[in-house]
Design a protein that fits this description.
- The structure is a single chain.
- By secondary structure, the chain is α/β, with parallel strands linked by helices.
- Helix content is about 35%, strand content about 15%.
- The protein has helices at about 20-25, 65-75, 105-115, 150-165, 180-190, 210-215, 235-245, 260-270, 280-295, 300-315, 325-330, and strands spanning about 35-45, 50, 60, 80-85, 120-125, 140, 145, 170, 195-200, 250-255, 275-280, 315-320.
- The protein has an 8-stranded parallel beta barrel, surrounded by 9 helices. A two-stranded antiparallel ribbon has the order 6-7.
- Strand 2 (about 50) and strand 3 (about 60) form a beta hairpin.
- Helix 3 runs parallel beside helix 4 and helix 4 crosses helix 5.
- The longest helix has 17 residues, at about 150-165.
- Bound molecules: ligand PBG.
């Protein structure tokens, strides 16, 4: 339907912008606390709150503090957290075996959080990069990131995470065929209710830089991830990736990064009508947070504006390091 408007002055678009109550009345989109997933970095130790240098305001938390953070998030009404491990170099191996250690950091953290805060969802990434001495999401041989061999490792990792009590698995590895393998394994091992939020359209992006610092993967990464993560030039390919992941058993899909890929968010949501999420990634966080720290941007306003952009693009929710402050703003807690 083409937009119908009377010519000026019969139509004066500013009539609908005159007052706050009118603007609220005609707002097309709304952001709510229910739309937020908060990524948290876990680390070893007790009582540890360790700043991530490249993400001002973001900390790595030992499990006890991560439990406290989850409690705080639940009290704000944030539906879900996503846990990422800071992995010491000594634990990383070429086979990434730590990924499916039932006692690895995220599995222990998940059990602790589910026990203390049962009403918040816990999402875990399925990808080998925190555990792989090559820093890649899959297994590497002779400099090549192997697809089918990696699937077996990812399957083991997914099962270990399900066993630990993860509610949502987020395969972020971009290997071909991984959703089917993981879904079949979950069905076969009686985890039919574990949800898969697939990182379906995940781009090879420099915006992940600060995250790799946060999880201790920057030093390890050899080369780049362009042979498995998507090329920023492509949009149609993202739709094929989403279609494939849905056919293989994904329940929800993600576009990542977020702000530079809002066209993809829009195309995915309008094309498939499935629960669609964007990841406002570490580099996006750092751009806004560090500029606001200089006093050059109003932090609260740019955070809310950037999150609303995801809603306008069609996203059902956003993974964002700003989740807690956005929730406080939305709840008027200041
Ligand atoms: C791991 C993973 C990455 C992110 C989430 N899961 C990094 C990568 O693919 O290199 C990035 C998140 C962020 O930048 O905030 N596969």
């Amino acid at each position: 339907m083409p937009p119908v408007t009377a010519p000026f002055p019969l139509s004066r678009p500013r009539r609908l912008r005159r007052t706050d109550w009118m603007r609220r009345l005609v707002a097309e989109n709304a952001l709510s606390v229910d739309d937020l997933i908060w990524p948290i970095f876990a680390c070893d130790g007790e009582g540890v709150t360790e700043p991530v240098a490249s993400m001002p305001g973001v900390n790595r938390l030992s499990i006890d503090n991560a439990v406290g953070a989850a409690e705080m998030a639940a009290n704000l009404g944030i539906p879900c957290i996503a846990l990422f491990p800071y992995t010491d170099a000594s634990v990383k191996t070429p086979g990434a075996e730590e990924a499916w250690n039932p006692e690895n950091l995220v599995n222990r953290a998940t059990r602790a959080i589910k026990a203390a805060v049962p009403d918040i969802g816990v999402m875990l990434d399925v990808a080998l990069d925190p555990y792989n001495s090559d820093g890649h999401d899959g297994l590497v041989r002779d400099g090549v990131v192997l697809n089918d061999e990696s699937l077996m490792a990812l399957e083991r990792q997914a099962l270990a995470h399900a066993e630990a009590g993860a509610d949502i698995l987020g395969p972020s590895d971009m290997m071909d065929g991984r959703i089917r393998i993981i879904r079949q394994a979950l069905e076969a091992h009686e985890f039919p209710d574990v949800t898969i939020l697939s990182y379906a359209a995940k781009y090879a992006s420099a915006f992940y830089g600060p995250f790799r610092d946060a999880v201790g993967a920057s030093g390890a990464l050899k080369g780049d991830k362009k042979t498995y993560q998507m090329d920023a030039a492509n949009g149609d390919e993202a739709l094929r990736e989403v279609a494939t992941d849905l056919e293989e058993g994904a329940d929800m899909v993600m576009v990542k990064p977020g702000m530079a890929y809002l066209d993809i968010c829009h195309r995915v949501k309008s094309g498939f009508g499935v629960p669609t999420y964007a990841y406002q990634v570490s580099g996006e966080y750092t751009m806004l947070a560090s500029t606001a720290d200089q006093g050059w941007l109003d932090r609260e306003q740019v955070v809310m504006e950037s999150l609303m952009a995801f809603k306008r693009a069609g996203c059902d929710g956003i993974l964002t390091y700003f989740a807690v402050e956005a929730a406080r703003t939305l709840l008027d807690l200041g």
